[in-house]
Design a protein that fits this description.
The complex is a heterodimer of chains A (247) and B (505). Chain A is α/β, with parallel strands linked by helices. Chain A has a domain of 153 residues: 3 Solenoid (Pectate Lyase C-like). Chain A is built from three helices and twelve strands; from the N terminus they run E-H-E-E-E-E-E-E-E-E-E-H-H-E-E. In chain A, strand 1, helix 1 and strand 2 form a beta-alpha-beta unit. The N and C termini of chain A lie far apart (61 Å). The model of chain A has no long low-confidence stretch (mean pLDDT 95). In chain B, strand 8 and strand 9 form a beta hairpin. The relative contact order of chain B is 0.15. Chain B contains 15 helices and 23 strands. The longest helix of chain B has 25 residues. Classes of the chains: A alpha/beta (247), B alpha/beta (505). At the A-B interface, helix 1 and strand 12 of A face helix 3, strand 5, helix 6 and helix 7 of B. Strand 12 of chain A pairs parallel with strand 5 of chain B, so a sheet runs across the interface.
Chain lengths: 247, 505
């Protein structure tokens, strides 16, 4: 394992160093004293493991294509932006617009996330991106979602309205993919393009598969989480705006 | 109730010439030509879109498409068109949809600008006998350069930003695979390679067969992020962040599900038949700082080896926005005027939002010069360039190069019927229907594109030579070579040109 001390480094210096180490064939890299440097693991296409000590900056793992990134702190905005393959695990909370246009791979966040998470995720055949959030989410969760799987666990949510599991405009404009929520959502929280369904056996199989992996990575008891009831959110139509126009 | 609407065109069939061969029936995807029970061909005027496909292919020249603008009681306000729009909406409650660029009779400033030529003094140059340089480098230029002497030889010490080299200041505009057919994309790619210029994927991703044209490809990253992944970014010569489009400033895009077949589905990573929705904003860009973040995210992803362009539509505050884009780190600013084309846009937005590209080029060039940052980014202008004279005038106003969209489609066979959004393009261009797509032969289309740009480039050399200039660089932003006719003082002030007849002071 190679350790890089990021103290005092600009993002450009740090990422150049990371790329250099990846190119040298190193399989495991540890970044210490990371303090807000952006674009870590941006577009790296080797299956390396990158462990980050400290808070990485925005666009962590953007366009990433293969690495496994473990953040032993909170994350910031735009993690897994247009990510293609690989895995990012954040042992804390994370910010806004996570997994924007994500095409593949996995993003696991232990705690809460901000606004517009999982926007415009996509899928094609067996290439299906997955996001699992341990905590709660803010508004516009899964907006414009076109594919993939998102699981929102809300392990720290309560009935108190200040700590509800998700914000408003949930899955607005969704036209593909699926979202599973542990618990329930009120009708007023949902975008008008989606319906709430009862998960079937195959849905619970999917939930079990990813929750088990998530719990193992982040130190939760999967059995305990899976005891709860989930709901399934899906788009009513592949063409939510098909009737918008006068032909 | 459905209001009967008189057809806008009339199909005339010369029965003496018609041999009932049914070519017109097979050619019309809009089903304007039909066969009756006795095998006789007939036409339905109301279905005709005036694309002229049947007229062009009729072997006996028996068909004519004629204007049949419905007569409404004389009224400049309530024209046949305004009434038709209301009826359509009264019946559907929908948003009016259209294709191609703004067709309204707004002023065309190109036609009010005239070029200079040399007479007696500063003699003109004949490009047939003397070297004439159209080559242009697009990208960020340094504020100054440092040179050091190594073994008695001068060596450039300054590290230059990556540049796109074009042999002529004409590139092909972003048109996505999905909006246009695979064959149309291939023709653009091949013509670009032959011409030493670039085509632009739009936001539809890059079909795997076209990766071989990567060195002549600009790939787009837009709000829907369709087809964006590291190989796509690596394959390209440059990356363009699409913020806006001249035909529909401020809104996103909906590629209708009808155009999302198996191959488009694979390139865009969305299910077959589903609408490809591009949100109005990039959800990771709400400020110039955020834009800068995406620019550098793309530069990091490609290790600072490719220029990053940012495309915006020309809107009221375009000069200040362009300044922000240059400061955000973009190498190229692409500006699309309000006549820019589209595969589909709401009619009211296409016809009423944005500003003319002529004014936008001048405003942006002036602002960037005033701020001393004109060198930081090249400017590519787009939006309705019709001929080489428009192109050279754009260069004189301050653009580094231009993007051609509609002109390229017309070169391939488009007759500007404005029905791209239906997916029924009879010319095989704006369609994904395999039966229609086959009509566009990429060999022939590439050759036609090549010919058009070659002809325009030669005309540009002739006009440059006429001005006594032997390199395009010397004309860029040189507005003394333009004079205005029929414009107001205010318009001339924005354009930075003087009235025709004023001296070369």
């Amino acid at each position: 394992m190679k350790t890089i001390d990021a103290k005092g480094m600009t993002y450009k210096e740090l990422n150049e160093k990371v790329r250099e180490v990846v190119a040298s064939g190193e399989k495991k890299i540890k970044l210490i004293n990371v303090n807000g440097q952006r674009y870590i693991a941006d577009a790296i296409d080797k299956p390396v493991q990158i462990i980050i000590e400290g808070v990485p900056g925005n666009d962590l793992g953007a366009f990433m294509n293969g690495p496994t990134v473990i953040v032993n702190a909170n994350g910031q905005d735009h993690i897994a932006n247009t990510m293609n393959e690989g895995k990012i695990v954040v042992h804390g909370d994370a910010g806004d617009v996570l997994g924007y246009g994500m095409r593949g791979g996995k993003l696991f966040i232990k705690g809460d996330v901000g606004y517009r998470v999982g926007i415009h995720m996509k899928e094609y055949r067996d290439k299906v991106p997955v996001i699992v959030i341990g905590g709660r989410a803010r508004d516009f969760f899964g907006e414009y979602m076109a594919g993939g799987i998102i699981i929102l666990l809300g392990l720290n949510a309560s009935n108190n309205s200040d700590s509800r599991i998700a914000g408003n405009y949930f899955a607005t404009g969704m036209h593909g993919g699926v979202i599973y929520v542990r618990g329930r959502l009120e009708d007023y929280q949902l975008g008008k393009e989606v319906a709430v369904l009862e998960p079937d056996e195959s849905d619970y199989k999917t939930i079990k598969k990813y929750v088990t992996e998530f719990a193992k990575d982040l130190g939760f008891d999967a059995g305990e989480i899976l005891k709860s009831k989930f709901i399934k959110i899906k788009a009513v139509s592949h063409r939510p705006y098909g009737n918008l126009y006068a032909y | 109730m459905k209001t009967y609407q008189l057809p806008e065109v009339k199909i005339e069939r010369d029965k003496d010439r018609c041999i009932n061969c049914l070519v017109c029936v097979r050619q019309c995807a809009f089903e304007a030509h039909k066969v009756d029970d006795e095998g006789e061909v007939y036409s339905e005027d109301e279905k005709c879109v005036a694309c002229q496909r049947c007229v062009s292919l009729c072997p006996t020249n028996a068909l004519y498409i004629k204007d049949n603008t419905p007569f409404v009681k004389d009224n400049a306000n309530w024209t046949a068109e305004t009434q038709k729009y209301i009826w359509k909406q009264a019946e559907t409650g929908g948003v009016l949809l259209t294709g191609m660029g703004n067709p309204k009779p707004y002023p065309i400033y190109w036609d009010h600008l005239l070029l200079n030529a040399s007479q007696v003094t500063n003699p003109s140059i004949d490009p047939l006998r003397e070297p004439m340089e159209l080559r242009t480098y697009l990208g960020s230029k340094p504020d100054s350069i440092e040179i050091e002497m190594v073994n008695g030889e001068p060596v450039l010490k300054t590290k230059l930003a990556p540049q796109l080299m074009v042999k002529t200041p004409i590139l092909f505009s972003a048109m996505s695979y999905g909006a246009i057919s695979y064959n149309a994309c291939e023709a653009l790619a091949r013509a670009s390679k032959e011409l030493g210029t670039f085509w632009n994927t739009g936001e539809g991703g890059l079909h795997k067969n076209l990766y071989q044209y990567g060195p002549n490809t600009i790939v787009q990253v837009a709000s829907g992020r369709f087809g964006v992944h590291s190989e796509y970014l690596d394959a390209a010569a440059a990356i363009e962040i699409k913020i806006g489009q001249g035909a529909k400033p401020g809104i996103g895009g909906h590629l209708p599900g009808e155009k999302v077949g198996e191959a488009v589905s694979q390139t865009r990573m969305i299910p077959v038949g589903s609408d490809a929705l591009s949100p109005a904003p990039h959800h990771d860009i709400y400020s110039i700082e955020d834009l800068s973040q995406l620019i550098y995210s793309l530069k990091e992803a490609t290790e600072y080896t490719k220029p990053v362009s940012v495309k915006i539509s020309a809107v009221h505050n375009v000069a200040a926005i362009a300044s922000g884009i240059a400061r955000a780190g973009a190498d190229i600013i692409a500006i699309d005027g309000f006549r820019g084309g589209t595969g589909a846009a709401p009619t009211m937005i296409r016809d009423n939002v944005g500003i003319p590209i002529e004014l936008a080029i001048a405003a942006v060039d002036t602002r960037l010069r005033e701020e001393g940052i004109r060198n930081r980014a090249s400017v590519i202008a787009a939006g309705g360039f019709r001929n080489s004279a428009d192109v050279i005038k754009a260069i004189a106003l301050g653009a580094d190069a231009v993007y051609l969209g509609t002109a390229a489609l017309v070169a391939m066979g488009c007759h500007v019927c404005q029905k791209c959004y239906t997916g029924k393009c009879n010319w095989g261009i704006a369609t994904q229907n395999p039966y229609l797509e086959k009509r566009l032969n990429p060999d022939i289309a590439a050759e036609r594109l090549y010919n058009m740009v070659k002809g325009w480039s030669h005309e540009i050399m002739e006009m440059l030579g006429g001005m006594g200039i032997n390199a395009l660089e010397s004309l860029r932003g040189n507005r003394l070579h333009l004079r205005a006719v029929g414009l107001s003082k205010e318009e001339m002030d924005v354009l930075g040109v003087q009235v025709a007849g004023s001296p070369m002071a």
